[in-house]
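Priority: medium. Attachment 1 of 2:
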């Protein structure tokens, strides 16, 4: 049973094998024979390969041995599994460098044990069905402050995705200094913070992340972030930031807040000597005639200077975060609305400020995603909830901001034309800005289920904002190179077998705001480190994800 096979015999055998696999999901047994040795564990035949780079697509076979791509070309060896990709495209597994997948486990505390019995939870299916094989967690300054704790959880549930992690500045600052957060740090305090960040970098973190529009990140001075950046530079890490202000708010000097925030991010990178990733680049209301070109010009000038500055983007005109987003910063702390503003005259002051915000971010433009203890209101607008509670929308918002667990919302506060203008540039990566979502839990933003297929269907094929090769590159090799993900992000011999096989005629984001829990379609096969996670458009339940450290 070990004699060489002719090309014709291989094709015949492979075809028979494919039929058996499709029918039974198993490799046929060789009755009466010893276990057969195969040259490849999986061969993907006849697909059009977009390798994740600028290279022209090619039709070729891909031979996979264990967790690696062994051969690309004409395959003549024997194989255990055959995937017929004729008429389909084959790409590297997609990479989402801005996720909060760890927060599902972190915030659920003991309820995270449900992951052991919920396939959609431990499998990270909302990402797998989009073709995403690798995610980066610890973004926006939130997440596990101990990389090892998060990676132990990953291993214990055998999580479905590869995971890299960033050291979350905000949560680390809370851990080090507690509820009463200092603003300007003493040298001793700064040393303590730098020491903790260094510990996480030693463990393999990719860099550090911030969220600077809410406490504790909003309390920080640029000098603190530069000093932390210098620590991270020693380990070859990067800086990812949810900027201080993403809007077109105009200050007393007539300057746009969004422009100033990008300048700050670039200056941190320049002074610390580290790469910068600007998270979910956008212009949120009030837009005030702020132009996309003003933001991109800053990034492009920095890149011409030799600085490694890039950004990521979700392909939607709405964002999602906690509802404290609608309350002016001066009234908030890391626990929600400051205690002194929860009642009396000072509460009235907050109401007036919120009502001013409602001029451009009205209660009808906010939809509640998650409301612990009041799940019946999930999926309804703030205006609808206030009406049901017989409250003014501003009072309703204040009460929500006083909850032990502040509700999350979706905010329709962007312009889709801004999304279009940002998208096609080769320093813009694709992201969901989502999290692991157990099926049918909460009423999340549809981006959690559909960002990557949406970009391909709507913006590549329907609107022709960019071509398919460039879109795939923004999802694969570009983020892999930026984050130094060793041997990932390309279809190349010796690279890890993270592979997406996609039907471009069927690719679609099916999740909507009203019905978000709908998996994307068009991903026919998906391999994660050589493990077949999706087969014939359906999750297999097999999981090949790994916790990964900085190369």
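Attachment 2 of 2:
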């Amino acid at each position: 049973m070990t004699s060489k096979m002719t090309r014709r015999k291989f094709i015949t055998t492979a075809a028979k094998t494919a039929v058996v696999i499709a029918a039974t999901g198993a490799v046929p047994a060789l009755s009466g024979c010893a276990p057969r040795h195969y040259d490849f564990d999986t061969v993907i035949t006849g697909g059009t390969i977009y390798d994740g780079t600028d290279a022209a697509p090619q039709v070729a076979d891909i031979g996979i041995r264990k967790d690696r791509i062994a051969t690309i070309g004409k395959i003549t060896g024997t194989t255990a599994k055959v995937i017929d990709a004729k008429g389909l495209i084959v790409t590297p597994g997609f990479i989402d460098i801005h996720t909060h997948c760890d927060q599902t486990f972190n915030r659920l505390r003991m309820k995270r044990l449900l992951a052991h019995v919920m396939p959609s939870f431990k499998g990270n299916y909302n990402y797998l069905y989009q073709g995403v094989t690798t995610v980066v967690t610890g973004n926006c300054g939130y997440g596990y402050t101990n990389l090892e704790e998060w990676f132990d959880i990953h291993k214990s549930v055998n999580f479905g995705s590869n995971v890299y992690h960033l050291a979350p500045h905000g949560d680390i600052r809370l851990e080090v200094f507690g509820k009463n957060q200092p603003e300007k740090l003493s040298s001793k305090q700064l040393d303590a913070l730098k020491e903790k960040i260094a510990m996480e970098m030693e463990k393999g973190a990719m860099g550090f992340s911030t969220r600077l529009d809410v406490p504790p990140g909003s309390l920080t001075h640029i000098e603190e972030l530069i000093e932390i950046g210098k620590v991270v530079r020693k380990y070859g890490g990067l800086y990812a930031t949810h900027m201080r202000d993403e809007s077109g708010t105009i200050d007393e000097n007539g300057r746009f807040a969004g422009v100033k925030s990008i300048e700050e991010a670039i200056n941190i990178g320049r002074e610390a000597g580290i790469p910068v990733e600007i998270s979910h680049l956008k212009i949120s209301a009030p837009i005030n005639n702020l132009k996309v070109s003003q933001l991109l010009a800053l990034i492009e000038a920095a890149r011409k200077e030799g600085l490694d500055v890039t950004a990521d983007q979700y392909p939607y005109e709405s964002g999602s975060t906690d509802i404290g987003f609608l309350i002016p910063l001066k009234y908030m702390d890391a626990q929600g609305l400051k205690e002194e503003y929860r009642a009396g005259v000072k509460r009235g002051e907050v109401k007036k400020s919120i009502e001013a915000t409602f001029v451009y971010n009205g209660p009808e433009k906010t939809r509640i995603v998650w409301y612990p203890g009041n799940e019946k209101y999930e999926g309804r607008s703030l205006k609808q909830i206030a009406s049901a509670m017989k409250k003014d929308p501003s009072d309703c918002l204040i009460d929500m901001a006083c909850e032990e667990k502040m509700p999350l919302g979706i905010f329709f506060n962007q312009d889709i034309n801004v999304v279009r203008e940002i998208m096609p540039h080769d320093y813009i990566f694709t992201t969901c800005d989502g999290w692991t979502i157990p099926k049918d839990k909460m009423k999340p933003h549809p981006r959690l289920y559909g960002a990557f297929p949406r970009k391909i269907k709507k913006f590549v094929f329907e609107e022709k904002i960019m071509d398919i090769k460039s879109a795939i590159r923004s999802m694969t090799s570009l983020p892999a190179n930026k984050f130094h993900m060793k041997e990932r992000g390309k279809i190349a011999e010796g690279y890890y077998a993270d592979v997406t096989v996609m039907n471009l005629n069927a690719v679609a984001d099916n999740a909507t705001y009203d019905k978000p829990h709908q998996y994307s379609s068009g991903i026919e096969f998906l391999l994660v480190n050589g493990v077949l996670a999706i087969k014939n458009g359906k999750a297999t339940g097999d999981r090949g994800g790994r916790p990964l450290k900085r190369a």
